Amino acid sequence: QYSDQSSENEEKQANRVASVNSPLPSTKERTGEEVVHLRREIGLLPAVSFIIGTVVGSGIFIAPKGVLMNSGSVGLSLLVWALCGVLSLFGALCYAELGTSFTKSGGHYTYLLETLGPLPAFLRLWAEFLFIRPAVASYVSLAFGRYVVEPFFIPCAAPMVLIKLVSILGVTFVVAVNCWSVTMASRTQVTLTFIKMFALVLIVIPGVIALAKGQTENFQNGFEVDSLTLDRLPLAFYNGLYAYGGWFYLNFVTEEVINPNRNIPLAIFCSMVTVTVFYVLVNVAYYTMMTPAELLLSDAVAVTFANRALQGLASVIPILVALSCLGALNGGFFGAPRMLFVGAREGHWPPIFSMIHIRRHTPLPAVLLLYPLVVLMLITGEIYQLINFVSFARWFFIALATLGMLIHRYRFPLHPRPFKVPLAIAVTFTVVCFFIVGLSLYSDPWNTGRSCALTLTGVPVYYVIVYRYRLPHRWRRIFSKSHQDLPALLIKADSKRT
């Protein structure tokens, strides 16, 4: 049973199918809130939990090694963590303005579409589902698998095949939850957020106690820069920003947030300040109990820390970290498909992906599209290469979105903006992002070059999809198949929802 608002004939056909197969009323008989759309079910607490639960995932338990490796010293790595927090807060405030100025879901895609036009928006959509989202979900799920499996094999190395198998099981669970119910996914996120904050508290307290007792030898000469090379510093920021990644996910679900003009800025500010404070304290705790050499040798930093500082709870920490990774994975699968959903609604993706389940109100096709892509990259990828590979495109498009915000301010000064970020913050964030992206092309030309090349492959695809009416008749018939024979339990969402 489905209805399609794109044409009168398709609507009549859908209504005929509805009258035969189901007692549910047809589209014309449904009015107001009865029209099927993604519902506003996310309040302030779920919004804060959504951001914190997506940001605090595998990053804080994996990225410290990458930050230290590329920064070269304890003091500089802590400075990188603090600066990454400030930079992420600046970006989150910019996205708070964008989210309250343009009240459609879709995040980066919607803001690029509204400010810079359809081609940049489509390229962001293309990059997101070709490699950004699969790569992000892959390295989070790999961290989940590693923390589940490795405690059973200490002191030996865990078999990678088993780690990847457990990672696939974690991805499968998250996909099932997000296909089943928006409410269940939201409640799962809130629960896992409280669990992961408890894990951070367990790490911070022993570190602060040891530091108060004078255990500061690992901070002596903390700013030695003998091993620092400026070309690797952007990679240190990439690893730190990866750990903070997720502050923009609430903007993917704007249409599902209750009172977005109030709750989006408030949730973003509260969550990012909390995360920044905890991240710096967790890294201080790491360096209090571990030497830099020990941290660089560890593939599971939190487990090494627990064995050193929490002997009685050493077996609990890997479980908490694994649940933390699961929460980040759930947040990603909850938010990212909404970008694809909105892109399909705008005509930039096959229309089946603008469908939602008629009873569960979940964007089922968009969620299911991600699953095989994530599994494929999970099987073939390596975690630190994935971070560098995905970060170039992600941060380039974030910089474009905030640049578009500044251009839109200049062109449309009277456009309603319930929340307005200070101009200095927006300009600083945009300039720093472009600087980091440009320098990374020099630091890691292979991975960033591949990321750039894959993004540009979307240009011909854009003209094929958006301007398909110019294609030969036989090719147009192939594309028209996506409009027909849609699954029986899907219905096209209300395209007028703003």
CATH top level assignment: Mainly Alpha
Mean pLDDT: 78
Number of helices: 19
Radius of gyration based on Cα positions: 23 Å
Backbone structural class: mainly alpha
Q: Per the principal axes of the C-alpha atoms, what is the gross shape?
A: globular
Structure description:
The chain contains 19 helices and two strands. With 498 residues, it is mainly α. It has one domain (39-466): Amino acid/polyamine transporter I (Up-down Bundle), CATH 1.20.1740. Strands 1-2 form a two-stranded antiparallel ribbon. α3 (59-71) runs antiparallel to α9. The longest helix has 32 residues, at 118-149.
Protein topology:
Layout: H1 8-21, H2 44-55, H3 59-71, H4 74-101, H5 108-115, H6 118-149, H7 160-180, H8 182-212, H9 233-244, H10 260-289, H11 292-297, H12 301-309, H13 316-345, E1 355-357, H14 364-380, H15 383-411, H16 423-443, H17 445-456, H18 458-466, H19 473-480, E2 490-492
Antiparallel strand pairs: 1-2
Helix pairs in contact: 2-8, 2-10, 2-13, 3-4, 3-9, 4-9, 4-10, 4-16, 5-6, 5-15, 6-7, 6-13, 6-14, 6-15, 6-17, 7-8, 7-13, 7-14, 8-10, 8-13, 9-16, 15-16, 15-17, 16-17
